[in-house]
Amino acid sequence: MSDQLVIPRGALVVLIGAAGVGKTTFAARHFPREAVLSSDAFRAAVGAGEADQSATRPAFAALHRALEDRLARGLTTVVDATNVSPGARAALLTRARRYRTSVVAIVLDLPPNVALARNAARPDRVVPEGAVRRQLRALVRSDDQTLGREGFALIARLRSAAAVGAFRVVQSRENS
Fold first, then answer.
1. How confident is the model over 41-63, as pLDDT tens digits?
2. What CA–CA distance (Å, rounded) separates 86 from 65?
3. Which of 21, 46, 121, 140 could potentially form a cystine with 17 if both were Cys, beta carbons 3.0 to 4.6 Å apart?
4. pLDDT one-digit tens code per residue, 61-112
5. How far is CA 34 from the centre of its chain?
6. Alpha helix locations (H) across 34-143?
7. Where are the domains of the chain?
8. Does domain 16-175 have CATH number 3.40.50.300?
């Protein structure tokens, strides 16, 4: 696997990975803040904080509205959520197709022991271990062939902390 991914300008970038693997940190390192739509941030905006699971439905409704607005304007957009289930990804892919937008998957597929340890060490939003294990099982079913069939034009799968650290995202000058 290459340690660099060139994404088309105006693409939808879908981060995929279990809770605690570093999706938010990855997004902050590679993309402008305004390009990132974070499910945790939307939960905080419509609920009682980033960990407020009771706010998930309205948070994703707001995230999807913001996504529609950005895609309609041809802006590169990153969705920072677990996105480990086909259903979660389908909602994003449907919107991207509507705007004829290229969709890129960046999968943070770290070893389970690393994912569980990182989640447990989080200072604020520790997700129950059982939920993280379910996300990790769903991630196994989200192999590159499956993601390709779903409609992802580019797929980068990062399998170690070192790979995540060495990886670079470059935005193309050409539109998606």
1. 999 999 887 877 878 899 999 99
2. 20
3. 21
4. 999 999 999 999 999 999 999 999 999 999 999 999 999 999 999 999 999 9
5. 15
6. 39-46, 56-72, 86-98, 112-120, 129-140
7. 16-175
8. yes
